[in-house]
Design goal:
The complex is a heterodimer. In chain A, the strands form three sheets. In chain A, strands 6-7-8-3-9-10 form a six-stranded mixed sheet, sandwiched between helices. In chain A, strands 2-1-4-5 form a four-stranded antiparallel sheet. In chain A, strands 12-13-11-14 form a four-stranded antiparallel sheet. Chain A is α/β, with parallel strands linked by helices. Chain A contains ten helices and 14 strands. Chain A folds into two domains: 212 residues, P-loop containing nucleotide triphosphate hydrolases (Rossmann fold, 3-Layer(aba) Sandwich), CATH 3.40.50.300; 60 residues, Alpha-Beta Plaits, CATH 3.30.70. Chain B has a two-stranded antiparallel sheet. By secondary structure, chain B is mostly helical. Chain B is built from 13 helices and two strands, in the order ααααααααββααααα. Chain B has one domain. The longest helix of chain B is centred in the middle third of the chain and has 35 residues. In chain B, a hairpin with a 2-residue loop joins strand 1 and strand 2. The mean pLDDT of chain B is 85. The chains are: A alpha/beta, B mainly alpha. At the A-B interface, helix 2 and helix 3 of A face helix 1 and helix 7 of B.
Chain lengths: 301, 311
């Protein structure tokens, strides 16, 4: 794997004696879309604000392309495009004036680049109208346009699909995937919508109570769990435990960690033990189930 | 830095409120000019000598009154002296309705200009918080210091624009409606009658009014930045601007008010030689104002730069 572009090291944020982010370390890589998942109030938005310099670190470091956000802010942030929650634009100006406004705050964003990005997000027709007349979907696109204006190497999106219709979400997803692959941009998407993260991201980091509790590649764990319905239960249980399988029993159904290629061997063994097998099936475990397991359930919204 | 000011200027003029402010100012200036023209008396300038003579006679009669208090005596003596001066030097009195008169009106509405500048001054920072645009503005490769400085400069630019508009409009309008003034204005300095230099007076009024102008803007900007609420900032700065002298009167029993900026911010008291509290020097006033200006600025910048943005 290539070198990380963003490195969070022992990041801690304490506000009024309350630890919002607790010793969080995370690396983000070019060309990869990382989902940042957690129940409400887990510290997602706080983490994003720390990464964008909107909030100051209590301790720890955040570096973007080697530049520290605390000590070398302007250099660090120059590689970052941000949409924090709803992109709040200046409603009393046109979309174009908004982009012009932000372009003046970056080095080397030309008029041609502004036109190009307007075209890419599909706002050409309405760009000279006031933002107050835009639909939520159009505002999201404008938000994306301002975030991508300066060709950032790192894109931070906080709850990006709030208010987008299903078609819009799909389009948005495709677009993000495209810039991640084509421009080798590292993308960090915070969301509490699990299905969203599952479809969009290569990798997911899970946060709870300000702590990073899990980090994994999406789809890598799938289909390694098998559901087995067999009798008599005592015999199966005895066999599985004596042969070192990891499993759980739920209403007479065994759930065990097993790779697909090992399934025939296990069946042969069990049949040899006079076990009656009714069904063996791969468990397609959605991220939601994984997430619930990780966070102990209940707290997800 | 230039492009940041350009940004702020663009945002400012895209708000309807800014145009309303300009509209109010134009309305007041044009309204006053036209009203003045309509109600203007037909002055017969030829018999001014007779008029002056009757002023002297009148004063003499009044001075005959027994048990006249010192203050009244002074007034009538002055009236006599000025009328006598006019007759001796063939100096006709100035007509109020003139270009100069209209320009003097312009200088006298510096309080209004200040008030109108305080409104965007209080909201230029706070509105970014209430609109949530602050997070878009600050996640850019520009230091927070520069962002805030560009806003402060823009507000002063806006205020000076209003002043310049007022100067030009009152001059042009005054000239069109009334033409330049004839005659001279008199004033008595240390018992000696002198001709006043109207243009110099107008200029000085503008310059001395910059005290209130600057302090009110800095105060509004400071409150707007610290509280990030436009309404609180506008209300507080207007209160202090309008009621400043009254607040000082109330406070003077309890605290040494000569160290409060409100006592000094109206620098025209040095021009009029009429002081709120007690006589003070221009140097003293400027020193107090400078200290408060620095305090307001330091607090504004410190909170803006250090604050965690949660909006």
């Amino acid at each position: 794997m290539s070198k990380p572009i963003v490195v969070l090291k022992n990041v801690t944020k304490v506000i009024k004696g309350k630890t919002l982010i607790d010793n969080l370390s995370l690396e983000l890589f070019p060309g990869q879309i990382t989902g940042f998942l957690g129940p409400n109030g887990a510290g997602k938005t706080t983490t994003v604000r720390l990464m964008t310099g909107l909030m100051k670190l209590t301790s720890g470091t955040i570096t973007i392309e080697g530049a520290s956000i605390a000590n070398d802010y302007e250099k660090a942030i120059s590689n970052v495009g941000v949409i924090v929650e709803n992109p709040e634009m200046y409603k009393y100006m046109s979309g174009y004036k908004n982009l012009l406004h932000f372009s003046r705050m970056h080095k080397g964003v030309t008029k041609e680049r502004i036109d190009e990005i307007i075209d890419q997000v599909g706002l050409s027709k309405r760009i000279n109208e006031k933002v107050s007349t835009y639909s939520l979907g159009m505002r999201q696109r404008l938000g994306l346009a301002q975030a991508l204006l300066h060709n950032p190497k790192f894109l931070i999106l906080d709850e990006p699909t709030n208010g987008l219709d299903p078609a819009g979400i799909r389009e948005f997803r495709t677009y993000l995937r495209k810039i991640a692959v084509e421009n080798n941009v590292s993308i960090f998407v915070s969301s509490h919508l699990l299905s969203e993260i599952e479809l969009m991201c290569d990798r997911v980091a899970v946060i709870q109570n300000g702590k990073l509790i899990d980090e994994r590649m999406i789809q890598s764990d799938e289909k390694t769990r098998m559901q087995l319905k067999a009798e008599p239960a005592e015999l199966v249980e005895g066999y599985l435990s004596s042969n070192g399988y990891i499993f759980t029993i739920n209403q007479g159904v065994f759930l065990l960690e097993l790779k697909e290629e090992k399934v025939p061997a296990l069946i042969n063994e069990l049949v040899g033990q006079q076990v009656q097998i009714f069904a063996v099936s791969a468990v397609h475990e959605s991220l939601e189930e994984q997430f619930l397991q990780m966070t102990g359930g209940g707290q997800i919204v | 830095m230039f492009s940041l000011i350009q940004n702020e200027w663009m945002k400012l003029w895209h708000k309807k409120g800014t145009w309303a402010i300009l509209g109010i100012l134009l309305l007041v200036i044009i309204g006053f000019g036209v009203l003045d023209k309509v109600t203007m008396d037909e002055v017969n300038t030829s018999d001014w000598k007779q008029e002056q003579q009757s002023l002297i006679d009148d004063a003499n009669t009044q001075l005959q009154t027994p048990d006249l208090d010192e203050w009244s005596i002074q007034i009538f003596e002055d009236q006599k002296a000025m009328a006598q001066y006019r007759l001796d030097n063939n100096a006709a009195p100035q007509v109020n309705q003139s270009m100069e008169g209209n320009m003097a009106f312009g200088a006298s509405i510096m309080v209004l200009i200040t008030l109108l500048t305080v409104i965007p001054g209080a909201s230029i920072v706070s509105q970014e918080y209430t609109d949530g645009t602050i997070k878009m503005l600050l996640t850019r490769p520009v230091s927070r210091f520069k962002v805030l400085a560009s806003k402060l400069i823009t507000i002063f630019l806006f205020g000076f624009t209003l002043i310049i508009v007022t100067i030009i409009l009152t001059t042009v309008l005054g000239f069109i409606l009334f033409g330049t003034a004839t005659g001279v204005d008199l004033t008595i300095v240390d018992g000696v009658v002198q001709q006043t230099n109207t243009m110099k007076d107008i200029l000085l009024t503008y310059v001395y009014s910059l005290g209130d102008f600057t302090m009110s803007i800095l105060f509004a900007f400071f409150i707007g930045t610290v509280f990030s609420s436009p309404s609180i900032a506008i209300a507080l700065s207007m209160l202090f601007l309008m009621m400043g002298p009254m607040i000082i009167m109330l406070l003077q029993k309890y605290i040494p008010v000569e160290y409060i900026w409100l006592t000094h911010s109206d620098l025209t008291q040095h021009l009029r030689k009429e002081y709120f509290i007690e006589e003070t020097t221009l140097f003293m006033s400027l020193t107090v104002l400078a200290i408060y200006a620095i305090v307001f600025l330091v607090l504004s910048f410190m909170t803006f730069i250090k604050r965690d943005v949660k909006a």
